[in-house]
Amino acid sequence: MTIPAERVLVIGGGVAGLALALDLADHRPVTLLRPASDDAGASRWAQGGIAAVLAPDDDIASHVADTLVAGAGLCDEAAVRFTVTQGPAAIDWLLALGVPFTPDPRPEAPYPYHLTREGGHGARRIIHAADATGRAVIETLVARVQAHPGITLCPSLTAIGLLHDADGACRGARCLDERGGETLLLAGDTVLASGGASGLYRHTTSPAPTRGEGMLMAAELGARLMNLEFQQFHPTCLYDPQGAPFLISEAVRGEGGILRNLAGERFMPALDDRAELAPRDIVARAIDAQMQHEGGEHVWLDISHLPAATIRRLFPTIQAHCLARGLDIARAPIPVVPAAHYSCGGVVTDLNGATEVAHLYAIGEVAATGLHGANRMASNSLLECLVFARAAARALRRPSGEWQAPRPASPSRGTPPSAASVAALQGELGEIMSRRVAIVRDDAGLAKAEAQLRELGERVTAEWRHHAPTAALASLWHSLRLARLTVRLAQARRESRGLHYNRDCPSGAAEPRPSFIGLDALD
């Protein structure tokens, strides 16, 4: 069957997916897969803000230079410059849509909106909506998307695989509905905006983390993945074993928050001249080292020395959340621990978000654009989402004509697995990755992880082959293979660089080069 190619399928409804759908829908019809879990995903929990050159005393060259330093030699400078240059226009677009950024009411303010500073940045360039920027941007974009006649929202479908035509081009996705029924969504072009892979780990900063499902689905069609070994751990997640994950924004340190060990001693100035505002990889390792030295389960982040009115004004969400858990941050320090936060690697794309698979695009955390290198600088993530969503939307404005629809076989496979068995296997995966492939690694641990994941993979493969697919089983199937690819790249990098710190490898010992891998590495 020959069908027209006008429709674009977008998989994922965080900032990247919503922005692309909204920017493109005046030109082509868009189907947006936005499951309910996206409301609790990474974009909504982005507290700090969006980095962009907005103040008159800031400049593009400085933002580029800061990003290159944070990326530890692995950034693609062209991608960095492209992203930073497009940043101010992306912020203007959000302002025009009505995003309620926090104003700066001072008569002498250099910019109408308050700009804060975060780790790695040499200037105040983080525009924010109090301490809930992600929520403000998401709510604004969702309202606009829901009102647009050219966008069809699919909240009850989950993509479990991509479709391809006879030429290998991506032509939509295989999806499951809430009852496990299969639906094929055909599209002339498909955009992955499905998030990163922090959910491979036991502790994350998001209550609904993704596990790199989109990355692996792209790899199944032949796309290369890049820099998977660089998983960022946010230094300051609220330590509360009984409660849901909650991020303590880097802006808290940007406004003067101090890290102290359990003895109450400040430890960052002795380790880095930038102290608490050093890049995240440095701060996370420093906290991890303090915890190992003291045998503790957290350190303290103290802002109690700030005026109570300042805390209420800048961090109302954090303050209210901590109060609900019995913590008054205006009077006592916050217990914090590093947690998996952001994937700096992903599907290789160009500056339009196009992958190496025809008619398949990737934007946001699922993509590896070259912006982040070996370590993402604070608040460059939402910036990347916006810039590449708008770039991909421009590239996708014209459809490519008719094509032959794929006719994938859908073999019948038994009954669905029990939810408990899938959750147990996913828990084993998270335990292996957290114990062996986290903030600090070593050769023996990586070898152990490889062996354990191989054995786990045999059991997961049996589940996948003998049971009808469910969304949870598909996620496990994808995440297990992505974890194995991550370990392969971590073993291959014979140096410590950025977020990849191996006790058995010296820092910066090799020529700074990105790492690439495909699914064939597991054959």
Summarize the structure.
The protein has 523 residues and is α/β, with parallel strands linked by helices.
CATH homology group of the largest domain? FAD/NAD(P)-binding domain
Question: So, CATH architecture of the largest domain?
Answer: 3-Layer(bba) Sandwich
Identify low-pLDDT runs.
none
Class by SSE composition: alpha/beta
Radius of gyration: 22 Å
How much β-strand is present in the residues? 15-25%
Helix content: 25-40%
In total, how many domains does the architecture comprise?
3
Spatial gap, N to C terminus = 34 Å
Q: What is the C-level CATH assignment of the largest domain?
A: Alpha Beta
Q: So how many helices?
A: 13
Average pLDDT works out at 93
- CATH level 3 topology of the largest domain: FAD/NAD(P)-binding domain
Major sheet details: 5 strands, parallel
Shape: globular
Order of the strands making up the biggest sheet: 7-3-2-11-18
Number of E strands: 21
Protein name: L-aspartate oxidase
Domain Fumarate reductase/succinate dehydrogenase flavoprotein-like C-terminal: 428-507
Keywords: FAD, Flavoprotein, Oxidoreductase, Pyridine nucleotide biosynthesis
Domain FAD-dependent oxidoreductase 2 FAD-binding: 8-382
